[in-house]
Model the fold of this input.
Amino acid sequence: MLRRFDVHRAASVKEAVQLRRLFGEDAAVYAGGTEILLAMKLGIARWPHLIDVKPIVSLGEISATKDTLRIGATATHWAIERNALVTRVLPALARLEANVANVRVRAAGTLAGNLAFAEPHADPPALLIALGARVILEGGAGLRSVPVAELITGMYETTIAADELIVAIELPLPAKDTRVAYVKFQILERPSVGVAAVATVRDGRFVGAPTLVVGAVDETPRTVPTAQFAGEDARDAGTREALAEAARAAVEPIADLAGTLEYKRHLVGVFAQRAVASLMAQAS
Amino acid sequence: MGRREIQLRLNGGDRRVEVEDQMLLIELVRSLGLVGTKLSCDTQVCGACTVLLDGRPVSSCSTLAIEADGKPVGTIEGLADGAKLHPLQEAFIDRFAFQCGYCTPGMIIAAKALLDEKPSPDAAEVRHWMEGNICRCTGYQTIVDAVLDAADQMRTTR
Done:
């Protein structure tokens, strides 16, 4: 049972932006509803107006240029997981999407909605940040592009302005010899911890520093400082343990139903190791 | 907005109904007498309320009724062909894949969506697909067995 609200179907991004300006804080952008309908049911949020952006056909597109994958704001997890282009150019993202929540959430929920809601227990942000993804926002002042790492500023908090909406997510395609991994541990509907790793490995050694981002344990994803690992032997158990220690030190987990602070910190180390192992298991 | 008329194809039959924007799909189907669809967790976790919307499994507890406008909606009542049960329903009976039965309509609808997309899944694919449907009495092995049996049955009778 939901309290009364009005759904406004926007026919264009321009119309959606106008509705955002008109209703301000009284409206939420609505696509899959997987987060906002639940928030309203639980009584932790109330919006008298929902701006439905699904009618805007262009927002559902997934396309790629030579160096960028572009995912429209209304593309669902389901659509991304099955998209032939995504599967080919960024298989790690397709795999992540195939394991978000459950099949019903994937059928309705969108990647953009996941980012905009900024629920801390989420899979996509860690990998998107590790890949250097950016979000394209459109509002009254026009278009702007914000790195995902800067978009999410806290639990359920983003830099999206009151008159803006996400129109697309742009991911720079990793270089041919760059390996990408996302591993997670999950006992409930959302991940307890997720670790994304991106690195180029040659002859068993990191070329430059590997990128490691830990998601779901903190208020926001944490990028692990890894500069010291540039050129290190990724096969070496000592290197991997040192990376795991760097990951453990980079997080300040929040204790909740998924575990205590100490337990989550331990998991972060284990899954940082597994992320690196996953990188090493890939052929370059 | 506020209140509007929608047209949907419910279990194969065209329906015109007036709904309020905040009405949930489960409220709509149950108000139309289709009470096989069950409400349980109300948070998209358990899968008891699963229906097919445009062929995809969705949580009807967390989907607005207006989303069904112009689309086919499938509930558990639409599976049997008169007195002849759907192969999934037969398989759930044959495998004793339920006890209390509360989760079963959602299980069967979710499984139907899987077999519609992938007629020959392996056990791991069935488990992955069904992991969002929770059963609190049977355990899951018989459910996985039933879905695999139904897939076999549907392939051989095709």
